[in-house]
Sequence to fold (486 residues):
Amino acid sequence: MPRKTNPLSKRNETRTFALSGAELARLVEREAVKLGASKRARVVRERGEFDPGRLAAMLRAPHSSVTGTWSIEEIVAARNSQMLGKFMTAARLAEAMGTDDALFVARGVRLAPVQSLGVEIVPEPKGKGAKIADEAGALFGLGGIAVGSDTITTIRSHLADHGVAFGYNDWAPRPDGTRWDPVHRAWPIEHVFWDDLTQQYMTRLDPRCSSDGPTDRIPICHGDGRWVIYAKSELLPHRLDAAVLPAAMVWARHAFGMRDWTKGSASHGNAKVVGEMAEGTALSDENGDLTAEAAAFLTLLQGIASQTDPVGIRPPGSKVDYLTNTSKAWEVWKELTENAERAAARIYLGTDGVLGAQGGAPGVDVQALFGVATSKIQSDLACIEGALQSGLISPWTAINFGDDKLAPTRRYTFPDPDEASVREDFAKRHAAFLQDVAQARAAGFAVTQDWVNTIASKHGVPAPMLAAAPTGAPAPEPSPAPTEGP
Fold:
């Protein structure tokens, strides 16, 4: 018997049906039961939400400018601009901070490990989910053409420094018209600003990208097919999650402290040679020129200062003294710079364990402390995964397949240090168990299944089954009981 056509199905919207009121009521009731059976709340994106003409339009940022040196006042002003959500000078500040060795290392430790992680595309377990995931793998998987590791590194750098990052999608149709393929790129954050009136981020565009309309106040709408916003906080992430806010003064403390320390080292490392001639010896003649004795003594002092003359003759009654800087100010600069290095590591990694033991402190297990830094990296990746899912993968699925109900999920394959520790511990316990069994056999003890089960339980490993003795083989003789007395 052929299946009845459902007039409420989407595919039958344009067809005409002759149904009685009772039949229509039953159909509506059946559909209501189906809807009520699903408890998962989900926003479904459909193809009609995205305008292909707008997505295909070229989108480019204005040219960026580079600033020179920084003073304390300029650093504070750039930090205040970050608090206001104006990233032009804050972006330049973050770039300048990257020239500092302490901040460069801390930021690098946070960003570098992600480039070695794998990526998996997880399909929806129904319908065409596997087929859609297979296509998505070529775009969003490891080495995919839509999302590059260099793009993600730039986005993560902005996310760590400014608490928010922005990406955009360039769309292009295939020649046969069967698919629209995106290429995700990082948007320069210096052209973005927070608009208090509309409570959203805005950006400036290159005027050549638009022949009509303003290019200085373009709203950034996450998930509209064009824009992707990466943020860990819903409200004002540029104030709550930006490392540049505390790191700005750390950079000033470290950079200016190193500058002063370098100046002090010139004073400490360059002793002055001062000579005193014998009493009554004339230093100059009636014309104001040096006497022959004074000129010869001056040549001797210059040779001593330049370390080119190993020997010399000092006139009788004269003296040669070294003037050295005995100040202890370098200790202040040392403490100041070390404190800044520890602070930079804590800001970007959550721990200064990567610096190891310093100043005579007891040794630390750096690998154990990396667990704290790993939580920072995992937080970044969770933000990246969520933003890419709702801002790129869902629109791609909706545009190419009608809606995003079967959108695959892009996930990073992050190594689990706890799992590795469990495996290593099990390997040690299992090796100890096998060694006990081997020693018992070598000593001639009767190794029975009950004994194996007991020893395996002691070691916390699964008990293996003993192999059956070959047919006709004599049973092992039990060891004789020990006798008492002589």
User: Anything to note?
Assistant: Residues 359-372 have pLDDT under 50 and may be disordered.
